[in-house]
Automatic annotation (TrEMBL):
<dbReference type="InterPro" id="IPR000916">
    <property type="entry name" value="Bet_v_I/MLP"/>
</dbReference>
<dbReference type="GO" id="GO:0010427">
    <property type="term" value="F:abscisic acid binding"/>
</dbReference>
<feature type="domain" description="Bet v I/Major latex protein">
    <location>
        <begin position="14"/>
        <end position="143"/>
    </location>
</feature>
<dbReference type="InterPro" id="IPR023393">
    <property type="entry name" value="START-like_dom_sf"/>
</dbReference>
<dbReference type="GO" id="GO:0009738">
    <property type="term" value="P:abscisic acid-activated signaling pathway"/>
</dbReference>
<dbReference type="GO" id="GO:0005737">
    <property type="term" value="C:cytoplasm"/>
</dbReference>
<dbReference type="GO" id="GO:0006952">
    <property type="term" value="P:defense response"/>
</dbReference>
<comment type="similarity">
    <text>Belongs to the BetVI family.</text>
</comment>
<dbReference type="InterPro" id="IPR050279">
    <property type="entry name" value="Plant_def-hormone_signal"/>
</dbReference>
<protein>
    <recommendedName>
        <fullName>Bet v I/Major latex protein domain-containing protein</fullName>
    </recommendedName>
</protein>
<dbReference type="InterPro" id="IPR024949">
    <property type="entry name" value="Bet_v_I_allergen"/>
</dbReference>
<dbReference type="GO" id="GO:0005634">
    <property type="term" value="C:nucleus"/>
</dbReference>
<dbReference type="GO" id="GO:0004864">
    <property type="term" value="F:protein phosphatase inhibitor activity"/>
</dbReference>
<dbReference type="Pfam" id="PF00407">
    <property type="entry name" value="Bet_v_1"/>
</dbReference>
<dbReference type="GO" id="GO:0038023">
    <property type="term" value="F:signaling receptor activity"/>
</dbReference>
Amino acid sequence: MAQTLSHTELLNCGAQDAWECCKHSDKVLPDLLPEYFASSEILEGNGGPGTVRVLHFGPAIPQAGAAKERLDKVDESTRTLVYTVVEGDPRYTNFTAEVHFEPKGESQTEATWTAKYDTVGEAGPPEHVKNISILIFKTFEKAIQAKKTTSHSETLDASPDAIWSAHKQENTLLPKALPHIFESITYIQGSGEPGSVRICKMGPAIPNGGEVMERTDMLDDATKKAGYTVLKGDPRFKHVSAVVQYLPGPTEGTTTATWAATFVPVEENGTLDNRFIVAVWKAFEAAAKA
């Protein structure tokens, strides 16, 4: 009969921020807890259900080696992630865990970890796994508290409808309009709807830019708002998420474009430049006017 072990931790941070850290834990944990997590790798998928990843443990988890996990559920609406340990601690079988983040006011979150498992032989409850989960929650909290935010607004000489239309065509528009920044933009999952994943091959204006993988988090026609998260590829940051919106501008036929980003830099004084979003907006403006 399956057994259950659970723990809830109150975090001094927002639930959405904690959820973003959780979704990118394979990238964040080796940076923030290298003594526990030496490295990670994605074997299949791009972070959604069905993704298979391997976590290689550090010296603080002696003789543990590595664990292979499959993501079974990644639910944005409830901020819930479920994973199954495919290969790991031989003392436990059928090990499935759920992680959930529930907001408590504006700046606190209840983070809950619940595991269901069968034991082998005389093995007791996996208290060590629960304790590592608590440590992970507190590490997320610390990273979020160190997170930086930036925003920028610009008035564009075209209507919000025209700018939004250009935005929705950015995968083909930007490599033509800004080839020095974007060599190509290609979807590897989906076609632009929320959950889609794309690869941006950066141009010569981005030194050592290489390829950046982004996930579409939001694309709302009613509010002309779009959101994205950088999954991997920018060595300057452990995490970047941003939202852009296009509203009526100060005069008829103009648009107020707003960009708001949150990020965790690798270096303490790292910053996120708004020059590239301005260049993108100017490309949208030119396309809209044409």
